[in-house]
Design brief:
With 793 residues, the chain is an alpha/beta fold. Helices cover 41% and strands 14% of the residues. The protein folds into four domains: 129 residues, no CATH class; 184 residues, no CATH class; 130 residues, no CATH class; 267 residues, no CATH class. The protein has 27 helices and 22 strands. It has a nine-stranded mixed beta sheet, sandwiched between helices. It has a four-stranded antiparallel beta sheet with strand order 12-20-16-18. Strands 13-15-14-19 form a four-stranded mixed beta sheet. Strand 4 and strand 5 form a beta hairpin. Helix 1 packs antiparallel against helix 6, helix 7 runs antiparallel to helix 12 and helix 11 runs parallel beside helix 12. The longest helix has 26 residues. The two termini are 63 Å apart.
């Protein structure tokens, strides 16, 4: 029903736009029509008066519909006693609405028969069954043709909104209500308390978070009034008993149209709740004409002081005595927001516009490394600044990238170090869902925080990203959303432990002229057979994982006389030189002086472990292997020289993959393995025994041996969760057990417990290094490199 309504409104929007009715006036026009459609199906208007007026009073060709709608919009803004005495009776049936929605004079639209029919089709829907919370965002999406192709993928479902609202404040309010509902004095105080609650959504869009929050508070208020009426005579005027109003809700929205939709949707939700009050207490209750509205500010939330949103006001305390409400005024007070919540725009660095990058610079002024941050991080820091010395609680939906990878160190180091932020609850990564077809695959977290600590903290964990959460109590929640101290993993140039260093692969920077497929190499050698000695197998991440052979010309040791006798290679070298000279980068231009060489050479002088820099999140293990120095490693990979099977075993274990899962950044949702964040900070087993080391080496060789039995299968196929051979699964399980025993004798209950252990071990390793330059690294035992049978030949 919600999507059907949005599609119908979308058609009307397109038709108005086609005739040149565009921009601000079109947006206001559609919002007014939206209000009228809801109003006649929810009791604000008499039933069907809008539909019947259009049907009976306007020409079928639509020629006069625009003028009639202008009359309706005008009359909705005129009190009954101010209207002309000879006004058309059917027009006079429309109530005085007020609320500034119909204040502005806008040009009438021109309609035709097709457009008139589109509006009548909209009227035929039962708008009383449509949720203002969901429809607002759907309505916004029809304004954009690109978004409309995946209609519904860009709004937040009620289910997900409640995941944030319930633990933030709603559950606690209901708990308090149940505890005090039999104490009339405390119940009255509680009623006054929730009537003073102020909520801010600083990226409110069409207001869905505020609308659902307001609805839930009104539902609680109804139960409060029911309990109060059990203990005392009920007032004859139900309006005296309803204390909550839409002006408790505050929002900031950068676009005008959704800000207007949010304001109207709040009125509509208020009216729906008033109808529920009427139904529950047998007294008709409406707030028409509108007296109050939600405080929705149309501006950039990052460029306005949130303190200025609340105006000083007289605080009214309501007391019920003998069934009547008594109001007492307190001192003039400005107050603070009790809760800040919402779903700010995510916007990764590659998608940010210049003005968004400027916002990040301004909000994070003086903080290093902010160029990699998602736009959503600005709301975290802005909120952290606002809540200093306040009891305000914050909860935001965000991309999971702010709890993984390099962003954690930049954002949370600032939040912890300068603003004393404590995380109160968190939903670990789950898939954003909605009610529409073609759902967008977005992976998010919810993080709630404040400027003070609490005893009861909760982590909501998911067995899979699509499953329902289960609640786990925590003593403290770190920014990786596991139990542990408030630590962040910062970039490190050297490994935390005494293990071989990791380096990037070689970057050709050759315009593709040094690289060959197997077929291209054969064709080249048919022309230039003496070039064979200069071909070496080239390992990039894609070819390594997918089992595709690729070759490169490796001319590091070629002599001038050899090059002179190889004209086809000379052609390639000349092409490389030309590509580099034409570059806009000075460093690349300088490389033209060395056209026979790769742009950046970091080829290991020994056997090395190859790690793809990007790997699918669907794999339980990142495929790795040991290669001889004769294999040229590309810059889409990382490599670790001077290694043995022990190193390979630990790195291909589930223990290391747990570290990757929590600490590694993401490219979309795939692992983006980082040398400075992931590898250099990884806490290796501390002082492993020779027996443990040998067991890991044997288990590691076992994995390689089984992989050799499937030479016709690529690593992508072998490590696909669906097609992974059972023998390989068991070999990895054996390796996992041996690596686990190297860390501790007791098995780990689950992945979260593993990560908690690794964070604790990280802190043990890290403490001697903090603030002590040149301090010796913690020992993990270093091992000499041996020739191993898993090495590729």
């Amino acid at each position: 029903m919600n999507i059907e309504a949005a599609v119908l409104m979308g058609k009307l929007h397109d038709q108005l736009k086609e005739i040149g009715y565009v921009g601000h006036e079109l947006e206001i026009y559609l919002v007014r029509l939206l209000f009228c459609l809801f109003a006649e199906d929810t009791g604000i208007f008499n039933k069907n008066i809008f539909y019947e007026y259009i049907l009976n009073k306007t020409n079928e060709d639509g020629s006069d519909l625009g003028a009639h709608l202008s009359q309706i919009f005008y009359i909705l803004n005129v009190p009954k006693d101010k209207r002309l005495k000879n006004i058309d009776e059917s027009l006079n049936e429309f109530p005085f609405v007020n609320g500034k929605l119909f204040n502005e004079t806008i040009a009438p639209a021109a309609f035709n028969s097709k457009m008139r029919k589109a509006l009548l089709d909209c009227c035929m829907l039962d708008w009383g069954k449509i949720s203002p919370a969901i429809f607002g965002a759907l309505f916004q999406s029809v304004m954009n043709i690109e978004i409309r192709r995946n209609l519904g993928a860009h709004y937040t479902s009620e289910k997900n909104i409640l995941k944030l609202i319930k633990p933030l404040f709603l559950d606690k309010l209901w708990d308090e209500f149940h505890k005090i509902k039999n104490n009339i004095k405390k119940l009255e105080e509680f009623h006054n308390k929730i009537a003073k609650i102020k909520l801010l959504d600083p990226a409110c869009g069409c207001g869905n978070f505020l609308i659902i929050a307001y609805r839930e508070l009104r539902l609680l208020e109804i139960e409060i009034i029911k309990e109060l009426n059990k203990h005392q005579a009920m007032s004859l005027d139900i309006s005296n008993l309803i204390l909550l109003n839409v002006d408790q809700m505050y929002g900031i929205e950068i676009e005008e149209f959704p800000s207007k939709v949010a304001e109207v949707a709040m009125w509509l939700m208020d009216h729906q709740m008033n109808m529920l009050v009427s139904e529950n207490f047998g007294m008709y209750f409406v707030r028409i004409p509108l007296q109050k509205s939600a405080n929705i500010t149309f501006t950039n939330a990052l460029r306005v002081d949130w303190h200025d949103l609340i105006q000083p006001e007289q605080i009214i305390t309501h007391i019920f005595k003998d069934g009547e409400q008594k109001a007492t005024l307190e001192e003039l007070s400005k107050g603070d927001f009790d809760y800040i919540l919402g779903n700010p725009p995510f916007v990764g660095k590659q998608y940010q516009k210049d003005w968004q990058k400027k916002d990040i610079e301004d909000i994070f002024m003086g903080v290093n490394g902010t160029g990699i941050l998602d736009y959503v991080t600005c709301w975290y820091l802005k909120a952290a600044k606002y809540i200093q010395l306040k009891k305000t609680k914050v909860a935001f939906v965000s991309t999971n990238s702010i709890s993984q990878g390099e962003q954690v160190g930049i954002l949370w180091n600032e939040l912890f170090g300068k603003y004393n932020i404590k995380i109160h609850f968190a939903h670990k990564t789950f898939k954003w869902t909605n009610e529409a077809k073609g759902q967008a695959a977005v992976y998010v977290v919810i993080i709630s925080f404040a400027n003070y600590d609490i005893d009861e903290k909760y982590i909501y964990e998911y067995e899979t990203i699509k499953s329902e959460p289960h609640e786990v109590k925590a003593n403290n929640i770190n920014p990786y959303l596991v139990e542990g101290n408030d630590l962040v993993i910062l970039k490190r140039r050297e490994p935390l432990c005494d293990v071989p260093k990791i380096i990037f692969g070689n970057m050709p920077n050759d315009g593709g002229h040094f690289l060959f497929t197997e077929e291209e190499r054969i064709n080249f050698l048919n022309i230039e057979p003496n070039a064979n000695k200069f071909f070496k197998e080239f390992l990039s991440a894609r070819e390594f994982i997918n089992g595709v052979k690729r070759w490169c010309l490796w001319l590091e040791d070629i002599s001038p006389s050899e090059l002179k006798g190889l004209p086809e290679i000379i052609k390639r070298v000349e092409l490389v030189k030309k590509v580099r000279k034409s570059s806009s980068r000075e460093t690349t231009k300088k490389l033209a002086e060395y056209p026979t060489l790769f742009g950046e050479i970091r080829q290991p002088k020994s056997d090395y472990i190859l790690i793809p820099r990007v790997s699918s999140e669907n794999r339980k293990y990142i495929p790795m292997n040991i290669f001889s120095k004769d294999y040229i490693v590309g810059d889409s990979c990382l490599c670790i020289p001077d290694v043995n099977l022990y190193h390979l075993g630990v790195l291909t274990s589930f223990m290391h993959m747990t570290w990757v899962n929590f600490v590694c950044g993401r490219l979309k949702s795939d692992f983006r393995y980082s040398n400075e964040i992931v590898y250099n900070n990884f806490p290796w087993p501390m002082n492993p025994t020779e027996k443990h080391i040998k067991s890991i080496e044997v288990a590691s060789q076992g994995v390689l041996d089984i992989r050799k039995d499937f030479l016709n299968s690529s690593l992508a196929e072998l490590y696909n969760p669906i097609s992974m051979p059972p023998r390989l699964v068991k070999a990895h399980q054996t390796l996992d057990k041996e690596v686990d025993k190297c860390y501790r004798s007791q098995p780990f209950q689950n992945e979260t417990k593993r990560m908690e252990f690794l964070f604790e071990l990280y802190e043990v390793y890290n403490k001697p290094l903090i603030g002590k330059k040149g301090k010796e690294k913690p020992k993990t035992k270093r091992h000499t490199t041996e020739r191993v049978s898993g090495t590729e030949e």
